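Ticket #4471: complex job returned nothing on first submit. Input attached below:
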Amino acid sequence: MSDIILFAAFPYVAVVLAIGGGVYRYRHDRFSYSSLSSQLLENRALFWGSVPWHYGITIVLLAHLVAFLVPGVWSHVIADPMTLYTLEVIGFALALAALVGLLVLIVRRLTKPRVFAVTTTMDWVLLAVLLLQVVLGFWVSLAYRWGADWYVHTAVPWLYSLLSLDPQTQYVSSLPWAVKLHMLNGFVVIALFPFSRLVHLVALPFWYLWRPYQVVIRNRGYRG
Amino acid sequence: MRIRSHMAMIFHLDKCIGCHTCTVACKNIWTDRKGAEYMYWNNVETKPGTGYPTRWEDQNKYRGGWVLDPKKNRLRLRLQGKWGTLGNIFYNPYLPTLDDYFEPWTYDYQNLFDAPEGDDQPTARAVSMITGKYMDTIEAGPNWDDDLSGSQVYANNDPNLDNATEEERRQMEEIDRTVFFYLPRICNHCLNPGCVAACPAGAIYKRGEDGIVLVNQDRCRAWRMCISGCPYKKTYFNWATGKAEKCILCYPRLESGQPPACFHSCVGRIRYVGLLLYDADRIEQAATAPDGALVQAQRDVIQDPHDPAVIAAAKASGIPDAKIDAAQHSPVYQFVKAWNLALPLHPEFRTLPMLFYVPPLGPVLAKMDRGVYDIVDAASGGLAPMMSALEKSRVPLRYMASLLSAGNEHVIRDVYHKLMAVRVYMRAKKVKDVPAAEVAKALAEGHTNAQEVEAIYRLTSLPTFEERFVVPAMERETAVEDLFPALDPIARNYPTRKGEVGFGFRNDPHRGL
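Support reply: We reran it on our side without changes. The output follows.
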């Protein structure tokens, strides 16, 4: 029963919250969409925190996404043991970078009075949830080796069953508790998306690459 | 020719008394808020000095503005390319931090009342306006080196003195000739703004009607590249709301025909504001001109508002007659283009600033020599006793050139010769102690004539409020037609504007959720 609530119902709640809440916030409180950078207040520790954290977590997340989107290709790639080892080692290093970065960021928020002053309760909640998620991911990859492989046969079919509105909890119900908590906490992160600074994720300005440098906006019908 | 109109500005440095009234006016209206305490959209710096934020002119540190790629003759942001922006989005390596400005503080005044009886006078300790904690030492403020205070540290570190010779440094530091002047600064509302180009979110834009550079805070995502991109450090980061903010040239005042608050309150009446008509097709050409031609190239962008061809092009662009009329009476056009007296601040940053400065005269009138106070070059006669040679100007020409003409001394020299011609001519006219030959010589050196000199004198010394500020009010009636082209008087579908739209934020500005 708890499996159904946690692995069949909760993911839908999280996703609906994320999309519905995100859209609502974007339409009604666009001002609050901000990465809320604190670099002006503290510069040095931020470098050792923000850079490894963001690059580490982005690439690890993208790997999760790729394996989910094209499981066939992924399985084919990691069929070669050498590639599998290499990928796992790279993933391990990136996760380590993310973990160290996140710890630096947390310590920074605790110890730098200026940054502490602009830290909200939700920021602490988010940091705790993210720390739990990274530690769990780290733990899972250490304790249950070759996650790059078994992820494709457990989490991916479960996620697809969720996507096809036919949740199949048996793919995940017998997994170790650490793995289950990692999956669950992942959906907690998704649920927190519209209620925290995580919204800056969808604000990444890729179109800057195509935009002309200068922006001129006319409120009036001038043609000049 | 694509004619646009631009609200442009003149600061006449000879008239600035460094009273900071402009700063106070701006501060009280716009930045007296949480998160904005450290911001001075308008500030007045003592030159030589390091300014605010400290050494803002040092682009090796802050990477503001543009650089010209000589091979391709193309501009690129000194900060980084577009891919660089995305790569550095998690950490901007060149962002000034709060310590480059100062940590805003107030005082614990209540302690003066509440302190228990004791042997010492109670004090009001400084309290940080960010952390709320006591600050033991205040190490910097917005005007820390005002009037050359601490000049051994501050004035000597002026980036404009980086290339000065020992002789030039001595010239400025000689205690009985010590010289300084004030440099009031606001956003330059550039034609080729670095902040707009650096913003990856596209939140900063130039208003087409009058060229005012604004931040759309609903689009700002705190990527903080604008702060680095602006070489004048005139975009700021609100640490409380997590949004960029900058001078808005008091556009709500401009739209109702009033000058911006800092202009209006200026005690020395150094400030002028007026429209310029310019050719948008020439912006790129001007921004990529070689260093030696930058000032002239920018003058060439500005078009003569009396030229029938320019007027026709302006009308074709939809610029209303009231604005063309205002451009014809613009004091800015007179100073910048007609008289060539006003220069852009640091044109080598290549943002084409639309705020122009008339440089201050710093003539040596007298000096101490072996304990004797004497008029300089009194023996040489002629103009020398009164005006002294330009080369002996208390502020070295090279310093002014570094500030206002990308290092080209001849540009500064031309301006000074004309300014001195005005002085000599007016002295001859009022005091009548300058021989006619000297007046004629000064006019010739200044490439000017009596009529022009009279006009310069008039607009410099005696301008009325209406002559200094030529601000055409926004044509409210046409705004409605622009927004609702399908207006139908029969169906009465006029927007009433009541209960429909409002000004400002729909919610109070706040940090995150």
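The domain at 273-356 of chain B is CATH 3.30.70.20 (Alpha-Beta Plaits). Closing as resolved unless it happens again.
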